[in-house]
Design a protein that fits this description.
Layout lengths: L1 H31 L6 E5 L6 E2 L2 E2 L8 E3 L5 E3 L4 E5 L7 E2 L12 E9 L3 E10 L6 E7 L1 E5 L6 E6 L6 E7 L4 E5 L2 E5 L12 E2 L13 E9 L5 H30 L1
Antiparallel strand pairs: 1-17, 2-3, 3-4, 4-7, 5-6, 6-17, 7-16, 8-13, 8-17, 9-10, 9-16, 10-11, 11-12, 13-14, 14-15
Helix pairs in contact: 1-2
Length: about 260
């Protein structure tokens, strides 16, 4: 009886160590799945990367400075930051994303819009009135800015209170939008050379009525066009990290039952 109990304790300890190592390894693998080539900015919005009014750009030095007290909420990957459109919330960086700086450009984030927006719920972009490079949603449709002094291209439906993966790619020939891995193509962009830095949660020329009502997570900017395979890699990487959370819950239940 004693030998059986000792064996059970040893087996349990071995299982704990093995499961912990495996889980930690899987988490690291999921994080490493994201594309890093050409990455200019990466703001994960995790609680341990934010302090005071700032969330760090962990890929460079383009930190996000907020005009409101940072409020963390559960994100698609760890924590996210919640923006309140009624209070005109936004974050500003020092990154210029105009075509003088980057001939091709990719903007990416997980977005969770909370409600319809009658004006324009700006996710992110850099714009000084020519509606240059940026995107958001109007009412319940995503819209992509393509320059030309005020053109927007309507995209797929914005699903409220749901995390969705959004990517906008600007090239000299084409504008491409991805929603949860689905690809949409739009007219050639004709952006003016904006001097407005990269913003999250607002489009400054549009005014306070254009701030984003919802949560934003995992913001990335690449100074090049991502391929379709790379977009899918980032999308699947974000959903893979979410799956590890389910493993963590299951592992907690196993420990409780011991």
């Amino acid at each position: 009886m004693y030998r059986h109990s000792a064996f059970h304790k040893s087996f349990t300890l071995l299982f704990i160590v093995s499961a912990t190592v495996a889980f930690a390894g899987y988490t690291s693998l999921a994080s490493a799945q994201h594309v890093t080539d050409g990455l200019e900015l990466y703001i994960p919005f995790d609680a341990d990367t934010c302090a005071g009014d700032t969330c760090d750009d962990v890929a460079g030095n383009h930190h996000a400075i907020f005009n409101f007290p940072i409020k963390h909420v559960p994100g698609q990957v760890n924590e996210a930051v919640e923006f309140n459109s009624e209070n005109g919330h936004f974050a500003e960086t020092n990154l210029l994303i105009n075509s003088n700086e980057f001939e091709s450009l990719t903007m990416e984030a997980w977005a969770n819009p909370y409600r319809e927006h009658e004006a324009f719920g700006a996710m992110m972009g850099g714009d000084d009135g020519g509606w240059d490079r940026g995107y958001g949603y109007r009412k319940d449709l995503w819209e992509i800015q393509v320059g030309k002094g005020g053109d927007w291209q309507p995209g797929p439906e914005a699903v409220f209170n749901t995390w969705q993966h959004t990517v906008v790619i600007y090239t000299p020939e084409l504008v491409i939008f991805y929603w949860n891995g689905d690809r949409y193509e739009f007219d050639e962009a004709d952006p003016t050379e904006s001097i407005q830095p990269f913003m999250i949660g607002d489009d400054i020329p549009c005014g306070p009525d254009c701030t984003f009502p919802g949560a934003v997570d995992e913001v990335r900017v690449y100074g090049r066009e991502l391929t379709d395979a790379e977009v899918q890699q980032n999308y699947q990487g974000g959903t893979a990290v979410e799956s590890t959370g389910k493993i963590a819950v299951s592992w907690g239940e196993i420990k409780t039952l011991r």
